[in-house]
Amino acid sequence: MTSWQQAERFLARTHEVQNQPPALENYNLFAQDTALQEALKREGASWARDSVAAFGELAGQAQTIRLGFLANAYRPQFEPQDRFGHRTDLVEYHDAYHQLMALATKHGLHASPWAEPGAGAHVARACRYYLHTQVEAAHGCPITMTFAAVPALQHQPDLAAYWLPKILKNSYDPRNVPDGEKQAVTIGMAMTEKQGGSDVRANTTYAYPVGKEGPGQAYELVGHKWFVSAPMCDAFLVLAQTEAGLSCFLLPRWRPDGSKNPLQIQRLKDKMGNVANASSEAELRGALAWMVGDEGRGVRTIIEMVAMTRYDCMIGSSAGMRQATVQAVHHCHHRAAFGAQLIDQPLMQNVLADLALESEAAMTLTMRMARAMDHQHDEHERAFARIAVAVGKYWICKRTPEHSYEAMEVIGGSGVMENCIMPRLYREAPINAIWEGSGNVQCLDVLRAVAKQPDSFAAFLKELNRAKGSHANLDAAIAALPERLKTAQQQPFYARQLVELMARALQGALLQQHAPNAVADAFCSSRLGVTEHMGYGRLTDPTAARQILSRAWPA
Ligand SMILES: Cc1cc2nc3c(=O)[nH]c(=O)nc-3n(C[C@H](O)[C@H](O)[C@H](O)COP(=O)(O)OP(=O)(O)OC[C@H]3O[C@@H](n4cnc5c(N)ncnc54)[C@H](O)[C@@H]3O)c2cc1C
To answer: For the chain, how big is the Rg over CA atoms in Å?
Structure first.
């Protein structure tokens, strides 16, 4: 070999890849999550431990993780008509999306607490949903809507008798065919119009009876919907005006005679996040639908669905925070800078532990709400859930965008790249906060709950008082709440201050009761002190920070 050839061979080997983490895959999301394991047991679903653990293994497999990347890399495509000009309203997805949907429905994420009700049914499902949406969140939209539609549909037993057996099936049928030809269906929701999103009273879509009027009867709907997510769902719960006011309808995509129901998709939304899930704009051109619940009481009917979607937003955003935390901690275990592993560097420990703290607090509150869902026959749990879902939805979703950005920064430049999950988590983060009742709407809902159902605030205080005396900051927060409530009731200008304190106090109270001292005290010291929490990396106890970290990600 000539010296030139030797030099060439040397030059071709420019470097060895060093100081980069291995991909975080083929791990068990449940086995690595001590706090979640404790929550599953504490909130009443010990019986599901083995199946949730098996699901955690499945969610962490490299091929499952890959489905999330593929489903987002290939955006859903809309085809209004076939090549002959027949209206099809077809949205085509990458096969990875369908595989994720199939996985979710196979494991009952869309319906298990209704299909198999019982102690811990919601908790077990919440744990699985929490694991699954760490891998891919966008397809959680139709899964959640299908899950959430059930309580609203039960307002109309004759319709429920036909649709529920198909909803409760643990399978997925993506075919674009009439519901009569399917054993398993998914359900969407179409409330929002251009002139009225949060304020659905401004809706102009109207419904006229085909024959008889009233609950369970057929109507035709004319109008538009500005947001219809997952438009390939088999049916939608829709709000439309009748002479008696806003009413709720079930609108299938096909008519019983097998023809297409004129719910015509105009175009797909070009979304910054939630990419794997299609969202559309649609025209209703005499679309056939059946009234669900009482005429003129549509908001009251559909709010049952909305309440469940808000609860699922808590699960989804908590899951986003957990995945961001895990990615950040994993990275720091394998990355060195300035002569030491990042995980061992004090300032990084502070940032990571603070991220882990927020994540554990979110999950703990979420799983407590899952327990409340399992005990809706109990007066206290019902009153507590009425207010705490609004508080939790507001706060957990609000905390997620900043959390995902901070975790991205921990990973550094590679965390910005699309072949890392962080950009996806970051773009997903604000969405849960906006849909299903944006921040202000949640805060006003808390005030409405207190006004209409004062026992909800009493139930909330009762929950807080369970941890009274455990930390001075928590005691001060509990003591401050009645005054903050009074102020916010007089001036809604201050409603966020009220709800944020309620949320932090509830998280602090739950952690004081159930988490190790290092976690609970760090939370109450950093989130319930006199000064407001201003971001991550401001914990004050290095020893506690290390304990929080080893709990968040056991070696
Ligand atoms: C990705 C995505 C998918 C969606 N999918 C669906 C779907 O499938 N079906 C569906 O029906 N909708 C869907 N939506 C719509 C969503 O639910 C609405 O965007 C949301 O309810 C807010 O309504 P809006 O956009 O009209 O905003 P607006 O109602 O105009 O609200 C704008 C802002 O004003 C605030 N606000 C409202 N009232 C008050 C008040 N009284 N005081 C103070 N502040 C107030 C809100 O908090 C918000 O921040 C989707 C939205 C997104 C982003």
So the answer is: 25
Instruction: Check if 438 has its Cβ closer than 6 Å to any atom of ligand 1.
Output: yes
Please identify which residue in the block is written with the tokens 């900043």: 402
Pocket test for ligand 1, best of 91, 224, 227, 447 (most atoms within 8 A of CB): 227
Q: What is the per-residue pLDDT across 61-98, written as a single tens digit (0 to 9) for each?
A: 999 999 999 999 999 999 999 999 999 999 999 999 99
Which ligand 1 atom is the nearest neighbour of the CA of 145? 8
Nearest ligand 1 atom to the CA of 273 is 1
Query: How many A from CA of 437 to the centre of ligand 1?
Result: 6
Length of the chain: 555
Taking the C-alpha atoms of residue 345 and residue 337, their distance in angstroms, rounded to an integer, is 9
- 409/407 Cα distance (integer angstroms): 5
Characterize the bridge pairing of strands 218-229 and 235-242: unpaired
Q: Note the pTM of the prediction, 2 decimals.
A: 0.97
Atom of ligand 1 nearest to the CA of 271: 1
β-pairing, 235-242 vs 187-190, is parallel
C-alpha triplet 66, 147, 101: angle, nearest 5°: 25
